[in-house]
Amino acid sequence: MKVxxxxxxxxxxxxxxxxxxxxxxxxxxxxxxxxxxxxxxxGYPAVLKTLGRARVVHxxxxxxxxxARLLAGKLGAQPLLVLEAPELFTRDGGPYVAPSxxxxxxxxxxxxxxxxxxxxxxxxxxxxHRYDVLHAHDWQxxxxxxxLRYAPGPGPVAKSVVTIHNIAFxxxxxxxxxxxxxxxxxxxAIDGVEYYGGVGFLKGGLESADAITTVSPTYAQEIHAxxxxxxxxxxxAARADRVxxxxxxxxxxxxxxxxxxxxxxxxxxxxxxxxxxxxxxxESTFGLDRGxxxxxxxxxRLTWQKGMDVLADSIDAIVAAGGRLAVLGSGDGALEQAFxxxxxxxxxxxxxxxxxxxxxxxLVQGGSDAILIPSRFEPCGLTQLYxxxxxxxxxxxxxxxxxxTIIDANVAAIDAEVATGVQFSxxxxxxxxxxxxxxxxxxxxxxxxxxxxxxxxxxxxSWASSGEAYARLYGGLP
Length: 478
Ligand code: ADP
Ligand code: GLC
Known about the structure:
The chain is of the alpha/beta class. The chain is built from 19 helices and 18 strands. Adenosine-5'-diphosphate is lined by residues 17-19, 21, 299-301, 328-330, 356-358, 361, 380-383.
């Protein structure tokens, strides 16, 4: 079986969040099931640079009105295609935002072009390319199933799957872009790409795809309700028989404390005490006083989704409870400022690094005692899985994938020796502090604590079972 995976990011080429980790890791997991996955990415400067001199496999004189070429490369051991369209993708800044922090005003055209290219590949418009399934990730790839449905190429049309990594980002644009998309008028309909009078990229994909997945079973349920569905709950409910939740895995080649080059001290379940050298390294990197008390950490986008405002409001109480905190993150300016000020207020107890730093994120997980993830919603979440693998006990809000992957250390779970972390419900300072007090109490029972760390490290969150679930889904498409 041949799958075309369409996304706006993929680790290690371009990453702003968990989407990249998943798109980067899934192809290898699927290969184990005899599935060859080709990934199609936009030709951002960083991607073109790693590609070097690549073979040109196709040219469009005008793709969404601009010349484009398709270049062939490799993503790990799997095939990669890169959409080179200088007018759309050759620019400084992030994949979605200009250096000013504002969304690129032509994002609709950039990602419609990506989707059109994917649909051409998956419906016989590009010689030598044929796919059984087009797998579109998030709104940036969302129009591809709509193109396959309303304006396919001349060949056999692939089945399509849309995976929702975060329904909060929907790719919603004004109706006046519609005539430029190259879709027939019939597509501007309630069961097509029309969305509250405008155009919805994710919406169009969800209406048109043969199957819809999201990245955890609990989130798949949650998005049936307005609070989580964010306007798409009606569509999700109407297509409920096509919606499944498959939890993300982690790539053990990248996230393994026994082989991780970013750690001063590597360790495993059997050599856990070595971890303390990493704790010392986190303390010195974040300017924290040395100590044996609990060291909490954060590795996160600093946003409302992640409950980072609630955490910022709780810092004084965390320090008063005897906790120290290392924060690695970037995001909302006001939250960055709040954390920065907390670091000044609690010098020695709270250390803050504003920015995005991949190796440092490994050190933080490999040296801190517990990772705080107070998300208001979390489709899957990967940092709690990395925390488990690194013996950095996850303290999480009970939502989405966090609810599905962490076993709360309640009395029954402690008795049954199955707890892997701490969960709490209300994402408020009181809710979070309740969990932090419970965590500190557990930490003060070293045997219990290290048993919980070891249990998390042994838990299997590799891609094996989720890879199989995707393989089964592809194989069963109507
Ligand atoms: P989301 O995709 O919603 O941001 P996830 O938990 O799925 O949340 O994935 C976040 C990914 O981004 C993880 O790989 C995490 O380690 C990484 N990450 C987040 N913030 C930073 C940061 N400041 N520096 C390095 N890595 C980060
Ligand atoms: C999104 C979600 C996150 C998920 C990631 C990968 O960014 O916010 O919960 O883990 O996608 O699926």
